[in-house]
Design a protein that fits this description.
The complex is a heterodimer of chains A (about 650) and B (about 280). Chain A has about 650 residues and is α/β, with parallel strands linked by helices. Helices cover about 30% and strands about 25% of the residues of chain A. In chain A, α6 packs parallel to α15. The radius of gyration of chain A is 31 Å and the shape is globular. Classes of the chains: A alpha/beta (about 650), B alpha/beta (about 280). At the A-B interface, α16 and α18 of A face loops of B.
């Protein structure tokens, strides 16, 4: 005979104001199996949990129902309370009378109470069929894969490696460093970006626990948390990194000139190149698309000048495999192409550039030696107009969200312009100045005073050319008038967007992504670095636009999660997963087909005991199964059941109301 | 349509070449003009085989029993039968290399009264879609039609339709002949029979029959090939095809004109996801 205890929570006023909790207790007490029912202001608090622990012992309860908030919130808390009282934690059932009743029926207390009673009644009925479940142990491969070698990937890799956990760091381009390596100074303290980044890059290359795989891509990820297997494609670099000393003779002599991606195409690089002088690893690669030897079969100069004989034109892509336990995705972001702003003359006027192009020009190691110039005539501009929210917060042309970093870096740009071009003046067209962050508001305020920049609140409607100047026509909403500014150079703060291949990578990894293409975290507030797929974590702009401090914080958070995951030799896993009853399985393999995690395989078993004839049945990989229940829904012969949501439990629930 | 001679020759040859262990075909009942399925195990029995427009049963049903499991089986399939065979192959119930399939380009079969069967009138795929050799001349592929029975059902409201089915199911005696005769009902233990499920009781009443038949029809939704073995087997002569045809129409209209068993490897609407799938019912 089942003995159920019911504990109804007030949740302060969250539940008690809209649901008559006393009535719920009275109604529930009438159920035959309920031996004890009570309510309390905060069931999740220690005195609340103590009531549960006491009642379990005093009334010899066989299952416990807590009527409170969402199980996502406090299921673990109450399970632990059961465990502490010597009871199997999975004999707990939660009736969510907050999100499912009090919050959504605030106008009708009577109906909300009735619904709450029904919810509790269902939970009681279900709990009667609850079975004792036990956590599953899965072995763990203690090696992490970090995808992306920008500041997020670098930070995550270093933090994990410092905990003496091996890390495989895969970077798409020939050097790590990412977007941060392209920056000149960083807000709000104006440290030199290279000065704070490059030591970390060197640390990555020299760390005994980090295997750096540059110029490579992740092709496949199979397996499950703690036991992933990654296939990584090392793109052919045509340079033997083992013998190359990075002397630079090859790229100095290379005759082919190609727009330099690192400098946003402002200057040229060679077909054999290192992306920038501080690159890590500081070894050149050959751009196969432009190399004369590889495209036309003529040239071979680099091979001739290389004293070490490191050039190998016959090098092929290589696919390597690594066994890993967790993945940190830190693939960064791209910038929005402002082409849709036709009224600004984007593409027609050379003197309209993007912020990152401006950043490269004012950078000390940039193509112009740190002085901004007008692309049209090479003159140093005096009047520069900065336009914010290009693509951001623009549903018509771009995206709805705020890119978060543009307000701050535009402020930084006004300072840099002020420092580098004496007598210059900045005009900033803005919608709002969003400077939420430590020291950010102070930074903006100080910059406005120091640079005496003109801040114009409003949108720019048109840019046109007059002589060799650009006329920027916009609205100053604060005086309610149209203004025209004569500009030498216009800088567009283009929106941060996810990388184009983010959705592909997300699908490859099996994590979800949002409508823009950013990968989705498991919970926006409480699990911001985890994905819904166990063992895969997100750092930096892969998840949403972020500045460097936030990115580094998130990367370190990922590292903490990875270290936590690897803290034992085996990993505990929720036992609420599917299992197959071989007796009933007819081997139709529909479950194999619908499983979103690839957790189901088939196996051959004897037709009957001792029989040589075999038949096919489904088999569930305990480590991979996440307990979604898709297989249960498609199993016609009801051979699959989901622990914690078995048929008797569900039917009890339905019958009880 | 009479392929008796050809089939007898083929089967005799198959046994002579030791290509099969057993052959599923049709024989005369011995007391009237109708036919019943027969399993032939040696070349000596070949003369019992017949095939003409009275060969109505879907022989794929016999692939699920122990007589044929793990043996090399030859069988005759018409267009509709071949679609169920496709599904059995897709769902891993039979292995293609164990089968020798004599396909028929079918002109339609007749019921006991000699009238052409309703499903043959509407047949879209009269020719066997999977075979090792094909007898007869091939037909062009038909067009999807909603028959008058379903149109009439659709004109009824939800409550009325339920009442209609409940009335029909009143004469169900829960003998499960429909299930046993269905080539796609191959489960080791049917969910309706499972003690733990609690969903169905064994009682012989309308509510139990309603539950069982509805479950059955949903388990065949997107899979039923309209061979009507179930109707032929039903001792109460229930119009069971109405359930399946109704589902067939719903699925055809909502899931990219899906027709079951037309291609090997196509599991049907319930087991694949497409961006075009309707989702307007999700709140």
């Amino acid at each position: 005979m089942a003995r159920v205890g019911v504990f109804v929570c007030f949740c302060g006023a969250n539940i008690a104001d809209f649901v008559d909790v006393n009535q719920v207790v009275e109604e529930v007490k009438r159920i035959k199996e309920v031996k004890f029912a009570t309510n309390y202001k905060y069931m999740c608090s220690d005195p609340g949990q103590q009531q549960i622990r006491d009642a379990i012992i005093q009334y010899r309860l066989t299952s416990v129902v807590v009527a409170a908030c969402s199980p996502r919130m406090h299921e673990k808390t109450f399970r632990k309370a059961l465990f502490d009282a010597g009871m199997n934690p999975y004999l707990l059932e939660i009736a969510n009378i907050r999100e499912h009743s009090s919050w959504v029926h605030q106008k009708d207390k009577k109906a909300a109470t009735e619904k709450a009673i029904d919810l509790v009644r269902m939970a009681v009925a279900k709990s009667i069929a609850n079975e004792q479940l036990h956590e599953i142990s899965v072995p763990v491969t203690k090696r992490a894969l970090v995808i992306g070698g920008g500041i997020a990937g670098i930070q995550a890799a270093l933090d994990i490696a410092d905990a003496r956990i091996p890390v495989v760091l895969v970077e798409k381009s020939p050097s790590i460093g990412g977007k941060m390596a392209q920056l000149d100074e960083t807000f709000p303290t104006l440290d030199c970006s290279q000065c704070i980044l490059t030591p970390k890059m060197v640390d990555v290359a020299s760390h005994p626990y980090i295997e750096l795989i540059p110029y490579a891509e992740v092709l496949e990820l199979e397996g499950f948390v703690g036991n992933y297997k990654a296939k990584i494609k090392k793109k052919a670099s045509y340079v033997n990194f083992k013998t190359c000393t990075g002397c630079g003779a090859c790229w100095q002599k290379c005759p082919v000139k190609v727009p330099n991606e690192y400098n946003m195409g402002i200057d040229k690089r060679k077909a054999i190149y290192t992306p920038f002088p501080q690159a890590v690893p500081n070894k050149p690669v050959i751009d196969a698309e432009h190399c004369n030897m590889l495209t036309k079969g003529k040239c071979g100069i680099c091979a001739k000048v290389c004293e070490k004989g490191s050039i190998d034109y016959k090098m092929q892509d290589e696919i390597i495999e690594r066994e890993i336990g967790a993945v940190v995705v830190a693939t960064g972001y791209s910038l929005w192409d402002p082409k849709p702003y036709e009224e600004y003359g984007v593409g027609r006027f050379k003197d309209i550039i993007t912020s990152l192009e401006f950043e490269r020009m004012v950078s000390a190691n940039g193509p112009t030696g740190g002085v901004p110039i007008r692309p049209s005539d090479g003159q140093v501009p005096k009047n520069v107009v900065f336009i914010k929210c290009i693509g951001s917060r623009d549903e018509a042309k771009g995206i709805e969200y705020c890119s978060k970093i543009c307000c701050m870096y535009t402020t930084k740009h006004t300072i840099l312009l002020h420092h580098k071009v004496p007598g210059s003046h900045s005009y900033v067209f803005y919608m709002d100045i969003r400077a939420a962050g430590k020291g950010y508001e102070e930074f903006v305020k100080k910059a406005q005073v120091d640079t005496a920049a003109t801040y114009l609140r409003g949108r720019v409607s048109k840019i046109y050319k007059k002589g060799d100047k650009l006329i920027v026509r916009g609205e100053d909403a604060q005086i309610g008038q149209v203004v025209e500014v004569v500009a030498d150079l216009v800088v567009l703060a283009t929106a941060v967007i996810p990388n184009k291949d983010n959705p592909d990578l997300a699908r490859l990894l099996g994590v979800s992504y949002d409508k823009y293409g950013y990968m989705s975290e498991a919970h926006p507030k409480l699990r911001p670095v985890e994905t819904a797929k166990a063992g895969i974590f997100l750092a930096g702009c892969t998840q949403a636009p972020k500045d460097i401090p936030d990115t580094v914080a998130q990367a370190s958070a990922c590292a903490a999660k990875v270290c936590g995951l690897f803290s034992g030799d085996t990993m505990k896993k929720d036992p609420m997963i599917s299992s197959v009853n071989n007796e009933f399985c007819s081997g139709c393999q529909n479950c194999v087909k619908v499983c979103p995690y690839g957790a189901i395989v088939t196996e051959e078993i004897p037709m009957s005991r001792g029989s040589k004839e075999m038949r096919t049945v489904a088999k569930i990989n305990e480590g991979v199964c996440q307990g979604c229940g898709s297989c249960v829904a498609v199993c016609r012969s009801m051979a699959i059941s989901l622990a914690g949501f078995s048929d008797p439990q569900i039917i009890n629930e339905i019958v009880s109301i | 349509m009479d392929y008796t001679k050809q089939i007898q020759e083929i089967v005799a040859k198959l046994f002579a070449e030791d290509k099969i262990d057993v052959f599923a075909g049709y024989r005369m009942t011995g007391f009237d003009e109708n036919q019943v399925p027969v399993l032939i195990q040696s070349s000596g029995e070949v003369s019992r085989l017949v095939f003409n427009d009275k060969s109505v049963f879907n022989l794929c049903n016999y692939l699920k029993y122990d007589h044929t499991r793990n043996k090399r089986v030859g069988l005759v399939v018409k267009g509709c039968d071949s679609r169920s065979l496709n599904l059995l192959l897709t769902e891993g119930q039979v292995k293609r290399e164990r089968l020798y399939i004599v396909g028929i380009a079918c002109d339609g079969v007749v019921d006991e009264q000699g009238n052409k069967m309703q499903n043959c009138e509407e047949c879209m795929f009269p020719d066997a879609l999977v075979y090792d050799e094909l007898l007869g001349t091939q037909h062009p592929e038909g067009k999807y039609k909603v028959n008058s029975d379903i149109k009439e059902l659709a004109s009824k409201g939800l409550v009325e339709r339920r009442a209609y089915f409940e009335e029909i199911f009143e004469s169900c005696i829960r003998c499960n002949a429909c299930r046993h005769s269905c080539p796609l009902c191959y489960c080791t233990k049917c969910c309706i029979d499972q003690e733990t499920s609690k969903l169905y009781n064994g009682a012989n009443n309308t509510s139990s029959a309603f539950h069982a038949l509805m479950t059955w029809s949903l388990h065949l939704a997107g899979r039923c090939v309209d061979c009507r073995n179930c109707e032929k087997a039903c001792p109460s002569h229930l119009p069971l095809h109405l359930l399946h045809k109704w589902n067939e129409r719903v699925i055809y209209e909502n899931f990219q004109e899906h027709l079951s068993g037309v291609k090997e490897g196509d599991r049907g609407a319930f087991y694949k996801y497409s961006l075009q799938d309707p989702d307007d019912f999700i709140m």
